[in-house]
Structures are given as structure tokens and as C-alpha cells.
Amino acid sequence: LARENDPVDLDGDGTFNDAVYIRTFGNDDIAFIDGAVLVNVTLRDAAGALCGANNTDRGEAVVRIPLPVPPCPADFNNSGTVTTSDISAFLTAWFADVVNGTTNADFNHSGSTTTADISAFLSAWFAAIAAGGCP
Known about the structure:
Blueprint: E1 20-33, E2 36-45, H1 46-49, E3 60-66, H2 84-100, H3 115-130
């Protein structure tokens, strides 16, 4: 998620051009919010981060670190939505696996591509459809 010497975007412009870096993380200072983690950190300047100057605090900040969005297995073609195109993409990969001996459609992670993968994929696909799509 984040580590010492990672840059911090202080002004929120989307770029790390503020010349400040994480120095230390606060003890027991973390909060989980929807889709992110909030953590209290002390900051250091670029010279301190590059070991070219004293390791001096330059202030504190509450840093919001976005959490990765979990993948959606039912979105087999990675289009961002669950549609019948995912079924076509899965079956294309499944048949290719059967012909070529590969495991790209090993949906249940058994180590081989079998008809059980079709059942596992369709179960995930129908569950995603029933839930209104992937999270």
C-alpha cells in the first residue's frame, strides 16, 4: 500500500510534485473507510528522503491510500461488466485449453481444465448477474 520514502501528493493535483515523502507511520493510527485506508504519517523533504540531508520532520499528514478493487472472475473478458460476451470468451478459452493442453480457463484452480470449470464459471457468472454485476 505505502512505505517509507513514498512520495505524497499534498495538494491533490494527481502528481507527486510537492517534494515531500513519508518519513514514518503513526503507531495505531489507521482507519479503514470504504475503498481506502487513512493513515497518519510524518513527512520529510526530498533531500532527507535521498539521504542528502538530516532526516527532519517536515510536518504531518493524513494520507488516503486507495485499496485495489478485487477482480471480478465472472467478467472473464475484463470489459468491466458481466455480459454474455464473458460466457463466449470463457468457452473460447476453455475449448482452446482442451485442444492445446493449457489451463487458461482453469476457473476452479484445480490445475487442469475440465467440465467442472464450466460449472464453476457459470455459477460465478449467474451470481454476478443476480447481484447486479461485480463489485
